[in-house]
Amino acid sequence: MTIRRLPTIAGIERTNAVLAGAIAAVVWWYGTPAAAVGVMCGAVVMMLDLLALAAIARTLLAVARGTGGAGVLGALAAPLKLLLIIGLVYILLTRAHLNLLGFGLGILTQPVAIMIETGRLITRSPLLGSTDPEA
């Protein structure tokens, strides 16, 4: 069985940044600057969340090889990350008074970027392990 290349965190983040910038520019032009700032803040929160999730996953995989109390701390990292992200979003929405619609659009850039990056790799890359250039 051959599998296709998988998207990288860097590729997803790059696609997300370009997508968020384009959406923010359109929102700035046709909407309000406050909504455009909300788009960028939402995208940055999601990018930070993905980076933190990747770091936690790497740590959990490294700790899984060993035994002891470090595994428990590693297992607690994911829920703590979620609480920190929820707290950050709460502070941004209540204290910074970000535009909620813009912030929501910024958050939606992450799943769209993942789909774009995955689709790009599926349509343009050969199968791993295949010697056929048409695969």
Largest sheet: none
Total of DSSP H or I helical runs spanning 4+ residues: 4
Backbone shape: flat
Share of β-strand residues? under 5%
Low-confidence stretches: none
Number of strands: 0
Query: Portion of residues in helices?
Result: over 70%
Radius of gyration: 19 Å
The topology string of helices and strands comes to HHHH
* Average pLDDT reading: 85
Structural class: mainly alpha
Number of domains: 1
User: What distance lies between the first and last C-alpha atoms, to the nearest angstrom?
Assistant: 13 Å
Summarize the structure.
This protein has helices at 9-30, 33-64, 70-94, 100-124.
Detailed description of the structure:
With about 140 residues, the chain is mainly α. It has one domain. It is built from 4 helices and no strands. The longest helix is centred in the middle third of the chain and has 32 residues. The two termini are about 15 Å apart. The relative contact order is 0.21. The model has no long low-confidence stretch (mean pLDDT about 85).
Structural key phrases:
0% strand, flat, 135 residues, mainly alpha, 4 helices
Write the layout of secondary structure elements.
Blueprint: H1 9-30, H2 33-64, H3 70-94, H4 100-124
Helix pairs in contact: 1-2, 1-4, 2-3, 2-4
